[in-house]
């Protein structure tokens, strides 16, 4: 991975600043037969009004889907594809995905698969989407109890990062996104960890630097492994256990945000890393203190060992029957493709669940 925090040297399709102004500039040099906007219920209410009066070359058609992870499925895709047909979308149309990770994941997949591909761009509106979900060209949906099982690799024409959308988020959603920022710090930019809040002081954060450095870490892995065959898997640190926790909690009265589940997953996978790779105790302590500061009230749910293993077995990061973990030998030193015995997983989970 290239060590580089100058975003413009890594990827010039990511534009920072006012989304309204950026759209006006974009349409000066890019023409489309029609424009469609994909929102969820929250972003239609809170974010669409911020760009509604952009300098549109033609009146956009707005498609609104339900909010939340439970909407990230093929049934919702059918709703979106039906809307494409109803609005006579063609291969010269543009879809703008205005939302968090569910909208950018699902919208990118819908655009890439409709008529074998129409134009699309992302305007991520959450910290998680700005730093992770909208970056890297992976799009997809959940299938039954399987996270992100159906999808594709497809590049948006551009990604517009407007940090003022963060003002529309509640504290819980901001923390959820900062979990992915912390992950980028753990795997690739330790100095990023020091930029994270130690309490709920989000208004004073240097969002410009946090977003740019976090995106640069992700792109550093992506550019060398665009199709997720090697070191890009380091970005899955915390996600094998995290996805299992997230899936388990979706069926309860206390579902977790994606970042919350990943935060818990990083705690458990840090313990696995210590057992399997000798992750130093001081690094484990840094991970614990960082996550503890972001999520002081978050606790690991009780999941029986057999059910935990069953959930992990559904993870898409598999080679044959083996689920492959991304672990840490040290902060800033990820190790991918790790097979982990169920006994080690169970012991690590119990360590934080006791």
Write a brief structural summary.
By secondary structure, the protein is an alpha/beta fold.
Descriptive report:
By secondary structure, the protein is an alpha/beta fold. The protein folds into 2 domains: 7-168, Rossmann fold; 171-353, Up-down Bundle (Dehydroquinate synthase-like, alpha domain), CATH 1.20.1090. 46% of the residues lie in helices and 17% in strands. It has helices spanning 7-10, 19-29, 41-46, 48-51, 74-86, 101-113, 127-133, 171-188, 190-193, 207-222, 239-250, 258-277, 281-294, 305-313, 342-353; strands at residues 14-16, 35-40, 61-65, 94-99, 119-124, 138-143, 146-153, 159-161, 318-319, 322-330, 333-339. The strands form 4 sheets. Strands 3-2-4-5 form a 4-stranded parallel β-sheet. Strands 9-10-11 form a 3-stranded antiparallel β-sheet. The protein has a two-stranded parallel ribbon with strand order 1-8. Strand 6 (138-143) and strand 7 (146-153) form a beta hairpin. Helix 5 packs across helix 6.
């Amino acid at each position: 991975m290239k060590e580089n925090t100058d975003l413009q040297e890594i990827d010039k399709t990511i534009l920072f600043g006012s989304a309204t102004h950026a759209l006006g500039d974009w349409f000066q040099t890019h023409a489309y037969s029609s424009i469609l906007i994909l929102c969820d219920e929250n972003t239609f209410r809170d974010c669409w009004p911020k760009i509604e009066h952009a300098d549109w070359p033609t009146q956009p058609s707005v498609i609104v889907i339900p909010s939340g992870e439970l909407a990230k499925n093929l049934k919702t895709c059918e709703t979106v594809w039906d809307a494409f047909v109803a609005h006579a979308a063609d291969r010269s149309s543009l879809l703008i995905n205005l939302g968090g990770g569910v909208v950018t994941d699902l919208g990118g997949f819908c655009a890439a698969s409709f008529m074998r591909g129409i134009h699309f761009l992302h305007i991520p509106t959450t910290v998680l989407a700005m730093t992770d979900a909208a970056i890297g060209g992976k799009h997809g949906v959940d299938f039954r109890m399987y996270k992100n099982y159906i999808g594709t690799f497809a590049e948006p024409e551009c990604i517009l990062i407007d940090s003022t959308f963060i003002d529309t988020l509640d504290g819980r959603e901001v923390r959820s996104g900062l979990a992915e920022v912390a992950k980028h710090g753990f795997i690739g930019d330790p100095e990023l960890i020091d930029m994270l809040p130690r309490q709920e002081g989000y208004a004073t954060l240097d969002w410009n630097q946090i977003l740019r450095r976090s995106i640069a870490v992700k792109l550093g892995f992506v550019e060398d492994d665009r199709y997720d065959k090697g070191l890009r898997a380091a970005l899955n640190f915390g996600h094998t256990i995290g996805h299992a926790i997230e899936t388990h909690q979706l069926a309860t009265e206390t579902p977790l945000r994606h970042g919350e589940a990943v935060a818990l997953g990083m705690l458990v996978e840090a313990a696995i890393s210590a057992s399997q790779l000798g992750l130093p105790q001081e690094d484990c302590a840094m991970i614990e203190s960082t996550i503890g500061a972001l999520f002081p009230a978050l606790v690991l749910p009780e999941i029986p060992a057999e059910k935990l293993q069953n959930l992990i077995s559904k993870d898409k990061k598999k080679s044959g029957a083996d689920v492959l973990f991304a672990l840490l030998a040290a902060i800033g030193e990820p190790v991918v493709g790790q097979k982990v015995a169920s006994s080690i997983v169970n012991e690590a989970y119990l360590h934080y669940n006791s």
